[in-house]
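request received
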Amino acid sequence: MTELVKIELFKIFSRGRTYIGIGAIVVIVLAIITGVYLEGQTAMDFVFQSLKENFIFQGNLINAYFITHLVLNTLWIHVPILVALVTGDLIAGEANSGTFRLILTRPVSRTKLLAAKFFAGWIYTISLVLLMAVLSLGLGIIVFGKGDLIVFKGTINIFEENDILWRFAAAFGYGIITMTAVASFSFLLSAFAENSIGPIIGSIAIIIAITIITTVGNTLTKPINPYLFTTYLPAWQFFFDFEPNYAKIFHAIKVELIYSAVFLLIAIVYFRKKDILS
Amino acid sequence: MKSIAVIIILLNFFILSPVYPQKDAGKILKAVSEKLSKIENYTADVLVKIDVETIKIKDRKAKVIFRKPDKFEFKSDGFILLPKNSGQGDFLKLLNQQSTALYVSEEIINKIKTSLVKIIPTDPGSDVILAELWVDVARSLVVKMKTYTKQNGSYTVNFFYAMHPFDLPDKIVVEFDLKGIKLPAKLSGDLEDLSKHVSKGNTKGKVTLYYSNYVVNK
Amino acid sequence: MEKEIFIEYWKVSKSFRDIKAVNELSFTIFKGDIYGFLGPNGSGKSTSIRMLLSLISPDSGTIRLFGKDLSFHRYQTLSRIGALIEKPDFYKYLSARKNLEILARISKVKNISRKVDEVLDLVGLLPRADSKVKTFSQGMKQRLGIAQTLLHDPDLIILDEPANGLDPQGHKEIRMLINTLTTEKKITLLMSSHLLNEIEESCNRMIIINKGSKVVEGEVKSLLNTEEMNVEFSLDDVTKAMSAISQTQWSNYFYYTEGSSLFFKMNQKEIPELATFFIQNGLKIFSIKPLRTLEEYFIKLTTDDRAG
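response:
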């Protein structure tokens, strides 16, 4: 199994498209840093102008933590696309290229092969999220330094510097869990497809569609919202409540993990019996 | 007839003449000023507690540095939000500017017997329209202040004093009206119902400043 | 001495929706065979081979490899087989060497580096070992495809249309390779093709399938025996003809009927005798078509398939 995982990782990191994802993360972080560098103070002034009547402020809120919090918002759409770009190709890509004929005629279990593929895809997913964290914090500290964190979440929440890093650790950790669900979903679609375009675009399109439906038609979908994995994609925000609601957080984690497991299980069960015609 | 006359005289006495003799507002304020003028400078630790519906921030520690006549400076390691009208600075400015002072009455404020003095700045450029000071005449200390301004509405400051050699406050509570805050548009995907949180209109805000470890005139 | 059975394919069927791709197909391959799997395009060859390699699951029937049921002993059986199905598709973004190393690791080959060099050398691709596969010609990819079948020293090699898409020179190269494998390395080989001459040149046993069913199976020499031929009699009443021959010696020559035709294996000299027999039994003969070799028969099958 270890050998299979190493092979799959080698294949993933030998492909150009993998570096699209990595490059995109770098570009996103740099774009956010640049944007905040140029316009961040203006935006902050806009927010605080209504408070200036009653308050004076001291201290710098444009800092590495502000950047990192902004970067976390890309876990909503941008990073899922970059994850699906690779995980959606893991099975369908081999079907499309015909390489399953070489691999599956060898003494290798289909279950182990798929598990290895998923695990390698998961490692890629984790590395993307960690890269995001390290880059945003690292470059953010170099360019803006550290300080307190301001979060706009219905209210203006200001966190002390010593109360921040654990929240980011938790948020990025949670981000790994949600991106695992995204990876599993695109992996499942990949098992059914003979071409990777379908699973890549399909998984993102479905996630966006469900999100729009549950947002716009909230009254109708309210009973099922707590049980949809798309509902909890942005739930990393819970860690930026003053007193995080751990019951909600654990529920969110549970939902994401269950969906991940179910998606993976269906993919494996289906693929074990699938006729390889390509 | 005789009884009617007594009633009229008594009514005149009670209506036309105050029951208590008139106090001199100027004297009251001068006593407060003189007391404060003994303080050239001081530093103190201050704990800032913000109690505003639309702002969530933990209590912050800062250092306050005062220099005569009315210069205040706050230093903090992190970000700090301070009430614009932090009390001491404001009434010091008031006392130092041209104004008309009127004694109004005696009132019990925070279990302390105080004299209410109204101050109307005469400088047309002043943001303050009217200020009310409740002064503990026995100790020449301002216990409460309510200020009406042109730009920023009204605010109330309560001062609490422990037994300090220079009678500096150990607690100041500032209350004010807060206009509806503009926040960035809700991010799609926010999980909480924002209607629970966003201020729909004006609300009340309160900031409490706890002072300690005064070092005076060093 | 009884030969060891390497492949036992017993009444295997497979349908895709309403199409019966393989219909109760049975054949046997022995150790040492160079076995030809012949049929027109769409006859079910690839489907049959994919079922042999567990790429496709049969609907019914049994497949035994090296005496073991494939369904329950997939790992043990596939470890003794090297296969190339249709055109060889590799990871184009990797070099030939890297592709083979990956496949060798999956097959748990020992001394991977040495083995990869060995098989590349055997197929004449060692000088291009580090070139990306996307730069390879079709012939080079085909040779690389054969190379990967040899990585784990298999007992049986399965090649599905190995010369497909190649020019005459490519054909020749593949034929020479196959010759090397079978004569020098004594590997048992199953080779499918839609070209009879490929089978004729290389194989000792063969099967012809059409529309998923076996048409004929046996030694290539005897099937292509020119002394004996297949003769097609096209008659007005097949039932009457079948009844007429049933109690006579002609039933021994008869082997197949299709439409209004009866097919007989017989010598040329016997044709007039049988023709006379039918006439004497009141039958009208529309045509008599002798098929001098199996090739003619196969061409007919192929033509019918295209027309149909």
